[in-house]
Amino acid sequence: MIQFNDVSKRYPNRHEALSHVSFELPAGEMGFVTGRSGAGKSTLLRLIALIERNSQGQIIVGGQNLGRLRRRRIPYYRRGIGFIFQDHRLLLDRTVFDNVALPLVIAGHRHQEVGRRVRAALDQVGLLSKERLYPVTLSGGEQQRVGIARAVVNRPPVLLGDEPTGNLDPELSRDIMELFQRFNQVGVTVLIATHDVGLIRTMTHRILTLKEGRLVNNSGGWGPA
Amino acid sequence: MFYTMGQLSRRPLGSLMTASVVGIALALPSGLYVLLENVRAVSRGWDGTAGISLFLRADVDDDGAVRLAHTIQTMPQVASTRWVSRVDALAEFRKASGLGDALEALEANPLPHVIMVRPQTAHTAPEDIRRLVDDLDARPEVDIAQFDLQWVQRLFGIMAIVQRGVLVLGAVLSVAVLLIVGNTIRLAIQNRRAEIEIAKLFGATNAFIRRPFLYTGLGYGLLGGVIAMLVVGSSLELLKGPVGQLAELYYSDFVLQGLGREASLVLVGAGAALGLTGSWVAVGRHLGAIEPR
Questions:
Q1: Which one of B201, B205, B208, B211 makes the best mutation probe of the A interface by having the most chain A beta carbons within 10 Å?
Q2: What string of DSSP letters covers A91-122?
Q3: Among A87, A177, B61, B86, whose Cα sits 20 to 30 Å from the Cα of B11?
Q4: Domain-embedded: residue B293
Q5: Contact between B228 and B176 (Cβ < 8 Å)
Q6: Is A175 a domain residue?
Q7: Neighbours of B163 (CB within 10 A)
């Protein structure tokens, strides 16, 4: 589903954020990208979401070569990706419902369809009762779950999480990870960047370890690395 | 669309203020335009006083004067003629001047026959009148053809200046409206930067993001146009009383004309177009710069 072939990313006047990274995450799998701050985890995810373009190599997502994707097609490509941020980036002047509805409104779904799907997504993250509240009235874990509901409401085949548990305590982090696993179990390809090695060691998924932009370990699937 | 209206109504005071600034900017040139149109209407009613006086040669007798008056009457540029015989003229002069006794001392009537010519309203442009005056002056019976050309030319000159002024003012204030709307939209874009970034990350096309801002600009323009219409309308309403009194003093039935339906539509349309253009420019300049982080 996600395939990197010798991918590098150089910033102007800066070192290589990623150098010669190759890996493949098959459809329906779940994987973690780990490494210290500045190792290139975020950059890797941002390249997949086309927030940035790679300087070298080839990225193929869902059979689509991103290097050949025209600028005008980017919005439609992004509709197939759910993105979750460390700081959740919810719109604070909108209710939970409106925040989660955003991707559906963007994709031009009909009003009733929007309501139905938003409630389904909120139900999945256990926040159905809070749809009328504003994000500031929610706890950190709840806000992150709203962010997840927003990412999955469009039923994208790919979910990307950039340190989604970075601001949460271990117990809440575990809840969030279990939530991701649940989406993975229904066929969504999930890739999550995290430095919380302790947490992901307990789970049986592929772990990509980055160090100064290089892929130093690609432990595939089942069992702790 | 509904979202835009929601945004506009959520900050009613701010939106109303922006629309009011647009409205006042539009009201200035359109108010001047209305006044200019009214001056035009008045000057059209003055073509009677702007007549041409033909002073005939002393050797033309009554019959000759009457015949000439009839001939001139048939010219297409001429609305009507009035013959003032030298006898009548003397009597009138005697009455008006108060020089009765002094005039008695004269042996003969020194005054010539006069024919007053009123040009057709379609021929009151300065060049047309000059041509007509030259034409009449060339007739053998006519001594002098006199027309207060300067006065009419000056009026037309002033009106041309005012007209040009309305155009210039309109252009300048249109630019002002563009800037006002553009700046308001720019601020709105900046205020919603986070929202735009998120929307782009979740696959919003530029068209989708542009739309509410364009609607907002259109809304400001439309509302501004309507406000301008109200401002001009109420200002004219305030002027109506004094203008009516003045007209009465001149025995005129002149009534101050309003904007009229067509000009009102043009005004609101211009407001809408300016609002849309202003927001289009702002959106084009500032939206592209926002890409998700």
A1: B201
A2: -TTS-HHHHHHHHHHHHT--HHHHHHHHHHHH
A3: A87
A4: no
A5: no
A6: no
A7: 17
Higher per-residue confidence, B277 vs B192? B277
Are the beta carbons of B194 and A91 separated by less than 8 Å?
yes
Distance from first CA to last CA of chain A, Å, rounded? Answer: 22
Size of interface A-B (CB pairs under 8 A): 43
Residue B203 and residue A75: Cβ atoms within 8 Å?
A: yes
Identify all chain A residues contacting B291, using CB atoms and an 8 Å cutoff: 51
Q: How many domains does chain A have?
A: 1
AA identity, residue A174? R
Residue whose entry in the numeric block shows the structure tokens 């500032």? B286
Contact B78, B117 (CB under 8 A): yes
Question: What is the ipTM score, two decimals?
Answer: 0.88
**Model-level pTM greater than 0.80?**
no
Structural domain span for residue B59: 51-147
Mean pLDDT, consecutive 10-residue segments, chain A of 225 residues?
92 83 92 89 92 92 92 92 91 92 92 94 93 93 93 94 88 89 93 88 87 83 42
Do B24 and B139 lie in one domain? The reply is no
Nearest chain A alpha carbon to B293: A51
Q: Residue B230: what residue type?
A: L
CB-based contacts of B74, cutoff 8 Å, min separation 6? none
Cross-chain Cβ contact A102/B203 below 8 Å:
no
A100: number of Cβ within 10 Å: 29
Among B199, B291, B292, the residue with its CB nearest the CB of A102 is B199
- Read off the DSSP letter of residue A135: G
A91, A103, A107: residue with CB nearest B195: A91
Residue pointed to by tokens 């009003």:
A111
| Alpha-carbon torsion (A111, A113, A116, A120), positive or negative | negative
Q: Is A81 helix (H, G, I), strand (E, B) or coil?
A: strand
Same domain, B124 and B108: yes
With CB atoms and an 8 Å threshold, state whether B199 touches A51: no
